[in-house]
Amino acid sequence: MKLPIFIVLIFFITGVTFAAEKTATGIIFGPFPTVTLPENDKLANILADEDYNEPYKGYKIDLNGDGIDDFVLEAPDGLCGTGGCGYLIIDGKSFRKIGDFFGGGIIISNEKVNKHLIVKRLQYSDSETAQIETYIYKGNEYTLKNTKKYSGKALKNQLTGLQRIEKKRVKLDKPR
Known about the structure:
By secondary structure, this protein is of the alpha+beta class. The protein has helices at 2-14, 41-49, 152-160; strands at residues 26-29, 57-61, 70-74, 85-90, 97-103, 106-113, 116-126, 129-138, 141-151, 162-165.
């Protein structure tokens, strides 16, 4: 009887999950297209501080349901490397930076917490293993809620519910 407990502890310690876990739904961004941003001094200062320059790459998506597009921006090519790219999330109403991420792809979930869509960051370890960090909006920014490691079938299950998005304006399907 000690072997099953040991196996469960290994899964718990390493963060590997079972394939039966709920499949993620939402979007995973494809290549980031050039996007036109509004002229705003606050936004310009954030982008200058982060070394983002034109042409800007990103997507417009309403993350909090206020009817105003927010911006998910990818760092310029010169700031990306083998570890990934930097990503900023800017509130479209206040032009405040509400998210700052580095690494692999960005996933926007169909699910909400605190009236904001959940953001996930995907980081591959190898072709069969990835770590998914889940961020929720708390206070005035996205903060890390948890990190899980997926491999094989469990990873495939997590990614099959996602739509690959390759357009500048994004509208999510309703949660299932």
